[in-house]
């Protein structure tokens, strides 16, 4: 095989690995055509998740040595900036992974190629979790496939809950009511918990605050955006009485000392100072190692009159509009979406497998798995995706800033009214600038008959 080489997305900014694994194996018949070269970008620096994808690449190359893959890994914190810079130059890779909520933005910029004529869409609709089916579609076309999904729930410290005599819900069918949940928080505080509920404010101001807090608002009848007159608007949704009341309730938790919003309590749960932690599946290994048999997974509480709400959506694979070899890129996608490869990556990153076959075979998320609750919340339609709009990146940033201000004690009504006004201004802005495409790709697209 050809040698490993190191590539840089930008000087001193990218951490990446290039795998040139497509040379003919010893004894293999020579290819009559030149190998096809594809570049694949992923949002991961050095670590187990990238190693899993490297293994996926090696498995693909063994089966299809005529397709050479260059795998480039980028630390998540700089990945969006790297994609944006590449798009401005018309230099996006053939295959790339995108954070699901940002997919409409890239579609609006003309950066992605629909997958409908490259894959058996009906087959994927039967195989994928419903949340990932919805996430990958924009305006009725399929643009992305996700190997895995995400979810929110409550992690509980069994010792603390038993100490206060709390009922421990056995399944998602019997969650705590809002009143019972707050009684548990009050009892934990009285029993000596420094922080009854860890809400991961140590994650900082970013996508976490939107992902975590929007379901809490939606469960109480509020929302971030609503469709009015055929247009998405924040006014009347984010600043609605239900949304305002939901945030006032959260502020009450902070004032009571049930939540530490300072960002200093990120270790409280694993070190036994918090009774509950509101976070996702990705903490399972860390929490299991710290608490052992004391760790218990609890369903989202019923904070409003309807059913509980949890988050959904995660990273997904797409093909760029500038890719000169979309058929070969689709072969890579098919490989990555196979049950074996979905299980390979989810065993490493702990995420919810994105296909039904992989869930069935998963030791963690299968019928008797310790994290099955996350799957059940999706199947029971408690999981909601974040708003679908090309403006999502900036809308989410505004929402996150508002959450941070409210955690610091800002007036709920005025803060949400101001945030709604700013978001509506962003939604009314002109669509994002299209990315430049190579002339050869543009010409080929124009000559391709509709299917």
From TrEMBL:
Subcellular location: Periplasm
Bias (Low complexity) ranges: 438-451
CDD domains reported for this sequence: PBP2_TMBP_like
Main location: periplasm
Region described as Disordered: spans on this chain: 432-451
Pfam families named in the record: SBP_bac_8
Coiled-coil spans in chain: none
Domain of life: Bacteria
Keyword annotations from UniProtKB, A to Z: Cell membrane, Lipoprotein, Membrane, Palmitate, Signal
Signal peptide region: 1-29
Gene Ontology CC entries for this record: periplasmic space
InterPro entries (UniProt xref): Bact_solute-bd_prot1, SBP
Family named by the database record: Belongs to the bacterial solute-binding protein 1 family.
Record-linked PANTHER family: ARABINOSE-BINDING PROTEIN-RELATED, POLYGALACTURONAN_RHAMNOGALACTURONAN-BINDING PROTEIN YTCQ
Record protein name field: Sugar ABC transporter substrate-binding protein
Organism, as annotated: Ideonella livida
């Amino acid at each position: 095989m050809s040698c490993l080489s190191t590539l840089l997305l930008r000087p001193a900014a990218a951490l990446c690995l290039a795998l040139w694994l497509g040379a003919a194996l010893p004894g293999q018949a020579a290819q009559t055509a030149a190998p096809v070269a594809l570049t694949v970008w992923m949002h991961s620096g050095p670590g187990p998740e990238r190693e899993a994808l490297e293994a996926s690449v090696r498995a693909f190359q063994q089966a299809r040595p005529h397709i050479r893959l260059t795998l480039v890994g980028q630390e998540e914190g700089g990945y969006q900036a790297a994609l944006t810079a590449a798009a401005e130059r018309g230099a996006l890779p053939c295959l790339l992974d995108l954070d699901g909520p940002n997919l409409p933005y890239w579609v609006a910029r003309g950066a992605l190629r629909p997958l409908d004529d490259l894959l058996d869409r009906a087959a994927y609709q039967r195989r994928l979790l419903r949340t990932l089916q919805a996430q990958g579609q924009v305006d009725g076309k399929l643009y992305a496939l996700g190997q895995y999904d995400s979810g929110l729930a409550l992690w509980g410290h069994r010792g603390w809950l038993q100490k206060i005599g709390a009922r421990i819900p056995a399944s998602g069918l019997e969650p705590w009511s809002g009143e019972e949940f707050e009684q548990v928080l009050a009892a934990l505080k009285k029993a000596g918990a420094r922080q009854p509920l860890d809400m991961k404010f140590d994650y900082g101001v970013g996508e976490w605050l939107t992902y975590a807090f929007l379901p809490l608002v939606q469960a109480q009848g509020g929302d971030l955006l609503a469709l009015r007159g055929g247009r998405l608007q924040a006014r009347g949704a984010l600043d609605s009485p239900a949304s305002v009341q939901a945030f006032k309730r959260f502020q009450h938790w902070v004032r009571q000392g049930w939540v530490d919003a300072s960002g200093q309590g990120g270790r409280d749960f694993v070190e036994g100072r918090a009774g509950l932690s509101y976070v996702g599946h990705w903490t399972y290994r860390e929490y299991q190692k710290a608490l052992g048999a004391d760790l218990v997974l609890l369903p989202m509480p019923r904070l409003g009159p309807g059913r509980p709400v949890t988050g959904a959506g995660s990273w997904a694979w797409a093909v760029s509009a500038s890719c000169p070899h979309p058929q070969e890129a689709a072969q890579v996608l098919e490989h990555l979406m196979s049950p074996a490869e979905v299980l390979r990556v989810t065993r490493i990153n702990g995420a919810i497998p994105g296909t039904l076959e992989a869930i069935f075979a998963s030791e963690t998320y299968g019928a008797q798995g310790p994290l099955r609750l996350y799957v059940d919340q999706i199947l029971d339609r408690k999981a909601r995706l974040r708003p679908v709009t090309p403006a999502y990146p900036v809308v989410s940033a505004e929402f996150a800033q508002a959450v941070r201000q409210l955690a610091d004690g800002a007036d709920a009504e005025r803060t949400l009214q101001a945030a709604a006004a700013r978001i509506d201004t962003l939604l009314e802005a002109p669509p994002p600038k299209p990315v430049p495409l190579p002339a050869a790709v543009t010409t080929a697209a124009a000559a391709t008959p509709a299917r």
